[in-house]
Amino acid sequence: MTVGQDSTRTGGDLPQRLARARGQARRALWAERLWPLMLPAASTAMGVALLGLARIPQRLPDSVHALALLGLGGAVAWRTWRLWQGINAPTATETDRRVEQASGLAGQPLRTLHDQPANTGTPALHELWQLHLHRTMAALDHLRGGWPHLRLPASQWVRAAPVLAVLLAGGLVWTGPHAASRITAAFLPGMDDADTPAPQVNAWITLPDYAPGAPVFLDATHATATIPAGAVLSVTLNGLDGTPALRMQASQSAPAIGPHAFHALGKASWSAQATLLASGTLRLRGRGRTLAQWSLHVTPNPPPDVAWGPNPGSGEGEWRTRLPYHVAQPYGIASLHAELVMPDSASDILRVPLPLNGQPRTADGVATPDLSDNPWAGEDVTARLVATSHSGTTATSAPIKLRIGARAFHNPVAKAILDIRKRLALHRENRAQAARELVGLGQADTVLTHHIGLLLALTSTAALLGSEDTSDEATITQATARLWFLALDVEHNRRDIDNEQADFGVRAAQEAVRQQLEHMREMGPKGQDADQQAELQHRMQALKDAISRKMQALGQQAMREHSAIPAMPEMTQQGEQNLGQMMQQLQDDAASGRNADAMQKLQQMEDMADGIRNATPQDMMQLAQQMQARQQARELRRDLRDLVTRQSQLLDHAQSRIDQDQHQRDREAASRQTDMDEDEGDLSSMSTTDLLRQLGITPQGSTAPAAPQAGPPPPPAQTPEARTAQQHADRAVQHALARALHELQREFRQAMGKDMPALDKAQTDMKAVRAALGAGKDPEAAAAEKKVLADLQQGNQQMRQSMRSQSSRGTISVLLPMVSDDGKGKGSRGSGGNQSGDPDDEDDEQQQAGDKGDRDPLGRKSGGTHAGMDNDTHLPDNASRERAREIEQELRRRDADRTRPPEELEYLDRLLRPF
């Protein structure tokens, strides 16, 4: 029973332990048999690595290098396969023997487990065999498979391996940190190690057209750069056998570099270009190495910021459409236009270009195009702004509702024609309906039936709409244009063929100028060349001639109707000058790329041309009032100039008395100086302090004043009685001037309805002048008189500004043809610029003529009252210069005398050193 219990205990887990031991033994046997297969590959690898440390494979051409590696690999594979053919799998017996050896079991107990007794016929023999098995299994407590026993086989591979290993270890120590790159380059054909000379790399970034600037060069010292999106990277390499590659690691998921490919320029020379799209780290790789690396910050190219300004559209009675805008973009705005869409016809879009001055980065302005001739005039539309930047991005503003400006028509027939025109253009009625309405309008008893030309224009348009020979789009376009001009003729009651032709000529010339400006804007910088400028000048001259013809036609009509205004040279000449200046400014703006300013000038000229008409009785009355106001303003300014002249005379009197006192003091000082020179004529006997005082120099530590210099010849002497009498007379004159100034203020207040603060201040300063003259204080009187003159001059400027603003408010806003002696019509004033001559132009010309003498030789002003002129400068005479020279020689003699006190010598050295 005891034996049975042991057998159960020891044999319960024996199969599992035995299976594990046998598996371990089998793996060990396989390792012992397979590891020799690794020796050829290991020896070959160590040999190649050793050659790589010596940089032998790297010197071979890539193709030879690759073939050599393939040959070595083939030889190793063939040898390994041959060795594999001689390897047999471990048997069960070999496995058990390895387990027995590893477990230290003697007598091959594992074989006993598989044996069978020769005779088991008797129970005693069977029990004895079982007892033997139990004892054998009890001995198998610790079964192990053992570790592989790696033995070097006797072959050439085995003999070479240790030698190669020792050499490889020495090579690793010898090459140091470059060992890894050399070994890697030995096993990878087409890859350079760290010791291979780097190729010459030239890289630069060309900025895009919208952000002009110098190219940005990249090298080892300039590894970072900030460039705008769309810049082009150019790379050239010299001395690289393999094809390089560009890799850019972007900070975002979007691609950072555009498509690119390297092109061979020659042997070992490459070139490529790539567009930079986003920021990141750019690496240039070639033959397994990073040849260059740069950190690039690409600034984005945002779309423009475009929005509407305040109060878009047209107000009540306005026929121009206000299109205020705000647009901004870092690289400049190339174009801006407004898209107008009718609510019931989204497919019809009216695009209105908005001119800009050049390509500004930020622009705020208001465009006022004339859209009154469009059939949509007077309708509410949906509008949006579309801006395109110089860098190619586009943005659209939020849509708004606005009303297109329309001209005011008062003639009911013209209104009816425009109503038919609008319905036809907006497809609210078809061609046949519009034709029938036009025919019915022509049959009614209206102004059309009394004017054959207008009736023919109406019937021809109706026939065009009724014809089926043309398409609907072409017919409607032509019919709307005809009906617009027909409505204008009816509204203005044009019956003169010359006037009609002149109007058409002006409109055609204006449209030609507009088209040329648009053409120059679209051409960009090329639009400012000489040819385009010459074409613009030619069209501007045609516009000027057309306006002149219109003026002549209206002048002849006025003569026939006995409503002509006689020509006034100062007004007609001013109107012609304004028109010429406006045209010249338009050409200058166009030449400078200021398209917005040029278009604004053209719009002003269009408004001026639209306002050309013959004079009415109201115009004649207004002209008379203007002429009267001009005359009154001229008299007021003449009186003010007379006040300035008389006040200047009072200042001259006071200054003369002050000069007389000064000359008297100068004579007394000169007399004292002469007495001192006679008493101290011997320079050698004078002290150094006295010599310096003779030169006008205050000695060190002395506060004595310098000797006065001789002044200019004194004025004629004036007795104290005459002096007092003149002061009293000047005081009386000053009182009279104050009263005259008060009267002038009253007249100006009545004429202009406002006061002038400068003249009020002049009244206060005049009181100070009278007080100073009464006390006999000429210096205080002169200072107060200068203040009075300054106040009067300021009042003169205020008067000019008030009269100019009053004149501009009262100017007729149209051009009135005036008939000259030769019967030709000339324009009296225009709607742009300074329309009529200012009421003070004549006085200004006289003032400018008087100021010509108040300038220095270089043409600069020397002061209105000559207050800044230095009239008391004294030039020494020959005697004074000779005496100063003698004093200088005496000082030099004393400076050369070393026996004098050290303090005096030191002072003389410092005094004479600059000379």
Protein described:
The protein is α+β, with helices and mostly antiparallel strands and about 900 residues long. The protein folds into seven domains: about 1-175, no CATH class; about 195-300, Sandwich (Immunoglobulin-like); about 305-405, Immunoglobulin-like (Sandwich), CATH 2.60.40.3760; about 410-495; about 495-570 and about 585-610; about 620-670 and about 720-815 and about 840, Four Helix Bundle (Hemerythrin (Met), subunit A), CATH 1.20.120; about 875-915. It contains 25 helices and 20 strands. The strands form five sheets. A five-stranded antiparallel beta sheet has the order 2-1-4-7-6, with no helix packed on it. Strands 12, 13, 15, 16 and 17 form a five-stranded antiparallel beta sheet that branches. A hairpin with a 4-residue loop joins strand 15 and strand 16 (about 395). Helix 15 runs antiparallel to helix 16. The protein is flat.
